[in-house]
Design goal:
By secondary structure, the protein is an all-alpha fold. It has one domain. The chain is built from eleven helices and no strands. The longest helix has 25 residues. The radius of gyration is 18 Å and the shape is globular.
Length: 275
Amino acid sequence: MRLTILTLIALVAFAANSFISRWALLDASTGPISFSLLRLCSGAVLLWVLVANRANVWRPVFKPISVIALFVYATSFSVAYVSLDAGLGALVLFGGVQLTMFLLALLWREEIDLFRILGAMISFLGLCLLLLPNGTLDLNFYSLILMLLAAIGWGLYTFIGHSSSDPLLETAQNFVWATPLAVLMYVIMPDELDAKGAILAIFSGAVTSGIGYAVWYAVLPRFQSTTAAILQLSVPLIAALLGYLFLAEVLTWRLGFAAGLVFLGTIVALRQRRR
């Protein structure tokens, strides 16, 4: 039961990140670079406060792949959400995350049962259906590429985190190390940040990112990496609902059908685990 609750908290936090980012960037008064910088900074501060009383916290460990993956994810994610709806962006993101983590699992020769393979194929079919050229959805190619890049970053970050021995400390250190990269990006490409954007960036960084990622890292060792990828495919459904309720985003039949295939794939892939 505890594992289920923690997993749900992490998945809702992921969906909230999509919703909050789209909300902050919707009217162009806040730029994606400053938003991602403040998001990483606030996450780093809160996580460092949570681990500050530990004896080993002052022995920083730099994991370059994790840090770069986190930075690439956070920056690409924010820029993509300038023009993508919350649900659509989340579906592209976590569909790409699933594909990335399955490929990494194959490279590392992780055992993948038939149900997870079948579930992944169904979910990927839903993602392909969504991305087919069609006039009913306004798909910005540049934003889609950036969201797929964010998916690769988050998929790699999650895959590495699967073997984490101290999820809270490692998440804190990754956020701290990623912040200078975000500062450098802001120096190169400065943009605006209004009060609403700042508040949303701080909440996203400290709560739905910092704490959400720490919770996710804590439950990751309990799942195989491919199962973790499949679980995240429930996030777009939550994000799409939040976007519909609070941002007046349109739920098209095409988006709904694609999300349904993704959800069906998730159920199929998790069937073996429930037996």
